[in-house]
Amino acid sequence: MNIYDVSKKAGVSIATVSRVLNGKPNVSAKAKDKVLQAIKDLDYTPNIFARGLGLNTMKTIGIMCSDSSDTYLANAIYYIEQELRKNGYDSILCCTGRDIDTKRKYLDLLISKRVDGIILVGSQFVFNDPSDDYGYITEAAKELPIVLVNGAIENDNIYSVLCDDHKAVYDITSTLLENGHKKIVYLYNSTSFSGMKKLNGFQDALQAYGITPQPEYMHFCSKDITCALQTLQDMDAVGLPFDAVVASDDLLAVGAIKYAHSKQLLVPEQLEIVGYNNSVLSKCTEPELTSIDSQVEQLSLAAVDTLMKVLCGDYVTHTSTISATIIKRNTTKF
Amino acid sequence: MNIYDVSKKAGVSIATVSRVLNGKPNVSAKAKDKVLQAIKDLDYTPNIFARGLGLNTMKTIGIMCSDSSDTYLANAIYYIEQELRKNGYDSILCCTGRDIDTKRKYLDLLISKRVDGIILVGSQFVFNDPSDDYGYITEAAKELPIVLVNGAIENDNIYSVLCDDHKAVYDITSTLLENGHKKIVYLYNSTSFSGMKKLNGFQDALQAYGITPQPEYMHFCSKDITCALQTLQDMDAVGLPFDAVVASDDLLAVGAIKYAHSKQLLVPEQLEIVGYNNSVLSKCTEPELTSIDSQVEQLSLAAVDTLMKVLCGDYVTHTSTISATIIKRNTTKF
């Protein structure tokens, strides 16, 4: 028996049930009656939302991420943790790795530890793959609210905060095309929800400028510097010319800078390079790396804000989108 | 009532009590009698160690660190988490920040969540400062075993895995002195247990070569690139010459490389630079950074190994020390 059953029985959304349980306004008398009748019929004890009222709460939020050693995810966790603490909530972090069984197990673990809600950080929880099984997440959402950072699932009790990755890559690619580049390489290291949005942004920008995306200019590299360096050297070896590199992650862009050094190419005069995430790495390279700032701090604060509102039964949009910004350093001419 | 009381009453170590409770060999008949008598006298239910026997265990280890966005700590957490999972244990991570009240609160939280043991990652939990109050850690050690990574507290139920930071900095400084350097700058960003060992290693090496350490050559910088760059520019501005920089963290060494670029100094020909932690940053700079590898993976595995042995009642040394290695890249001549 859970909030999901009440919502189904009453024929209203989970948010409406939550608002009724928390005595919030903006619920029609009719909807309220339906909810109260459903609660009565089901003999439901609203323990989940009672948590939010401080009646039965651990005041603890579960955080899950695939890999805490990833710079981007580590920063997101840091901001989320700080912000939760400001709101009087403790955090439990579980690093799941990429294996789905482990993800499922940790989600169950967090629920069994009676956390009030869960934030899934990073796009490694939802893939744009038809075989992707995120049923365990929707199942968990019957028990408690879930917020995805850089992921989206259509569900009444799942909320998303997203960076507009498509637009960010679309815009930077357009800028490069406008500046006369014709042969732009795209390097990426993930086919996750957000990884695919970035790749599509690149392809859509090319098409908007009448260029058909060529597979030999879009390369999947594992998340390391050497792979990006090798990929560009291989392109060079087979005589594929290029004059700009857009990377889905700063690490790959570092590999592109190393490629330029190895060929004694001037950056940005002979090769323009753009990274993604605006991580500390972008300040370590020579020249310093122009990078897209995916606003990890703002995204993290929005995730906590969303969850706090849900726990209070306040009205909240299911999806919040934040725009990335471009941080211009010295690997681009614009 | 806890294992500490039993140990005190019986007049034997906690390890001995643990071995008796777990039916391990290597306990004298006399010690065993004392323990059993104390348990009887105190009417003690050995619930803590029963956990280790799978009787009453959550099979969960608490991990605490001060800042999950720190590259070094993030890697340690990653390895610890993976290794615990291999041993059938789940992990709960709490990021405490540097405030002692928050550290205390999170330690209490973990104990209340009935974890089987706690690993404190990073040297931000123990300082070589007389005003340092780590009483909350020794208090917690009465409830469950604690392992410190890069920290040490003398206590029967607290274990340490350490990197030999003193020797690492002593050795690299000696090498630089042998190679003819006379004016070496030391940059550091922490006065923690391990931070002080590094600083002392630098000072001791100078003294071994008959050089008195000068305060104007040892600078505390906050943990960022700009601070290190500014510090070296300030030294230059007041006419303090230097020909090598040893840094307690790769980020500070990145600042030193930027200083060299800003003055158009050749690295390593005119300025040799050594970082610490062998982080991903050391592969992003131009030239790539020579860095001391503090063996975060080995330390992490040793921490988990120690805790697993303690939970089984196996004999384990209280302090394990692992040697750092120097990873030679292109900012040094040797």
Describe what this molecule looks like in 3D:
The structure is a homodimer of 334-residue chains. Chain A folds into 3 domains: 3-42, 434 Repressor (Amino-terminal Domain) (Orthogonal Bundle); 60-163 and 296-323, Response regulator (Rossmann fold); 165-294, 3-Layer(aba) Sandwich (Rossmann fold), CATH 3.40.50. By secondary structure, chain A is α/β, with parallel strands linked by helices. The first copy, chain A, is built from 12 helices and 12 strands. Chain A has helices at 3-10, 14-21, 29-42, 47-52, 71-86, 100-112, 135-140, 165-178, 193-208, 225-237, 250-262, 296-312, and strands spanning 60-65, 90-95, 117-121, 146-149, 158-163, 184-188, 218-220, 244-247, 272-276, 290-293, 319-322, 325-327. In chain A, helix 1 (3-10) crosses helix 2 (14-21), helix 1 (3-10) packs across helix 3 and helix 5 (71-86) crosses helix 12. A 6-stranded parallel β-sheet of chain A has the order 2-1-3-4-5-11, with helices on both faces. Chain A has a 6-stranded mixed β-sheet with strand order 7-6-8-9-10-12, sandwiched between helices. The radius of gyration of chain A is 23 Å and the shape is elongated. Chain A binds chain B through residues 60, 67-71, 74-75, 77-78, 81-82, 85, 90-95, 97, 102, 106, 109, 113, 225, 251, 254, 257, 261, 280-281, 283-286, and chain B through 60, 67-71, 74-75, 77-78, 81-82, 85, 90-95, 97, 102, 106, 109, 113, 225, 251, 254, 257, 261, 280-281, 283-286.
Task: Please outline what is shown here.
Chain A is built from twelve helices and twelve strands. The first copy, chain A, has 334 residues and is α/β, with parallel strands linked by helices.
